[in-house]
Amino acid sequence: MPALALYTKGTRVWIPDPEEVWIPAKLSQDFKDGDNSLLLQLGSGMELHYSIGNGLPPLRNPDILEGENDLTALSYLHEPAVLHNLHIRFLESNSIYTYCGIVLVAINPYESLPIYGEEVIDAYSGQNVADMDPHIFSVAEEAYRQMTRSPLWEVH
């Protein structure tokens, strides 16, 4: 599908903001080849003409993907999508960990959390990565499982 076909009335996008970094907006009319700006509606209801001199704004993910525990599951993976998803997980779900494929992204909560006790260790022990919420213990469990399957001293 050509990129222009994605920018129709009602399409949700992210636009840069000097204070918030990225803010959500939605197209108030279809974008046509040759247009040099988009007519956008902000969350406040205010409309603005957004210059596309530096390219079209990044598309927003569907609401159903908000707070996804693996960033690779997002339809659109770019700076505003990653920052928004981490924001949702941290502030609304109190989740400091998020996967990005096999990488674990951690947000420093700047406080001690009760997520490292014996009961949490036991909950992650023997579990598959996909079966549990993102956590450092899940990554450690997977590393241990992989290490026991293929010992370093084994010659291949």
Automatic annotation (TrEMBL):
One of its GO terms (molecular function) is actin filament binding. It comes from the Eukaryota. SUPFAM superfamilies: P-loop containing nucleoside triphosphate hydrolases. Keywords: Actin-binding, ATP-binding, Motor protein, Myosin, Nucleotide-binding. The keyword GTP-binding does not apply. GO terms for biological process: actin filament organization. Residues 8-70 form the Myosin N-terminal SH3-like domain. Gene3D superfamilies: Kinesin motor domain (3.40.850.10). Residues 66-156 form the Myosin motor domain. One of its GO terms (cellular component) is cytoplasm. Pfam families: Myosin_head (PF00063). Belongs to the TRAFAC class myosin-kinesin ATPase superfamily. Myosin family. This is Methyl-CpG binding domain protein 3b.
